Amino acid sequence: MGARLAAGTPAPRRRSGRNPRTTPEPSTRPTSTGEARVSATPIHRLTLPNGLRVILQPIPDLPTVGVSVHYNVGFRSEPADRTGFAHLFEHLMFQGSRNVRKLEHFRRVQAAGGSANGSTHQDYTDYYQAVPSSALELVLYLEADRMLGPDITTENLLTQVDVVKEEIRLNVTNRPYGGYPWTVLPGVLFDSYANAHNGYGDFEDLESATVAECEAFFDTYYGPGNAVLTIAGGFEPQAAAEMVARWFGDVPARPAPPAPTLAEPPLARERWGEHHDAHAPLPALAAGHRLPDPATARHGYLAHMVLSSILTGGDNGRLTGRMVHRDQLVVDVRTGCGLFGAFEARDPDVFLMVATHSPATRPEQILGVLDEELDDLARRGPQEAELARATARTSAGTYRTYDGLTARTRALGAFEVLHGAAELVDELPALLAAVDAEQVGRAAGALRRDARAVLPLVPAGSRANAA
Fold first, then answer.
1. Which of 233, 328, 273 minimizes the C-alpha distance to 452?
2. Whether the model pTM is above 0.85
3. What is the mean pLDDT of residues 405-412?
């Protein structure tokens, strides 16, 4: 292990003998309208010889920077019989690296006045921090050091298995509606292990993980050619590019792994399951349809986002107005694109409806109202006023979502690693505002009864309601 470092001082390291192109180039790619444009705040791209892709978005006069590293690996890349492995490995990446002691990453970022964290999704894992601009080089050093190699030991592995198990108890097994529906609905909607299994993990699988498996997972998925580094905020692009080359340039290149096989045939019938929850006070119902591919059918995907707002966007949403306020079938109802949010996964992903209801309401009643509203929208389209409200709501909501520095940095990296389209962060509001009534009608018509998964949640002591 290399020499330890004084807090706040990046370690001097041999600069790579290679000569990466460090002059960042503004990105001008075709938008969905076919016109080339540069983001309101220009996005710059560069790629190091080891394959690391870099996204830079300077924001003038901002005194802070966001830094994220997105690795192209998530729940859907986990080995068979190792459910939860990607999330477990995310935890291990904070347990020290070649020159950074256990938890020192957190301590040094916090000492610099910043914050750091990580998360695991279906198709990516990200590590992110927001710090004063003066600490940019420190964060780049810390991220590069663990890209060189985390400190994977038996002690660290056993400790993090216990930490993840406690997280599952806290967020899923000992919590009302915990993990519902994202941990369980995919098992009804999909067939393949990659798409259907519980990404949080089973205890037996987590306890069976070995150091050798962790080392192999790192070697396979955590190379620079399988990652995107993003910097957004107050910095000068040329200076940042030189820092990136200095700290990441000598991370050895490794072949990018093959993508997991995710394609599945469309559903031919409605599927039902049942989920029991010992802590839930009321029954619930989740229904899921497969979304259009966000890469190849983007307009269809956007139309589903607007459709969701028409259905449950505020008190005047169609389902909210009927189910909650008029007929009082449910306590609450929501819809949305993606298990973790819109554009947060590759194809296939899920259009969700989730409702909490009284024991007197049958799931078929809720589905009946959903089908009536979807059928009406498919036949006649949305009314002009409700379409205007929905497009305004989704567009403005997207602006707000990416207004925060950390959220913007993470979205830039996620959209790039998933879709090769970091610019979506700035393009989405206008694209959503342009969705028309015909597109919404087609989206509603695609959510057919015979192409969905239905998963009632049954509280302890209740009889099953499922058909």
1. 273
2. yes
3. 97
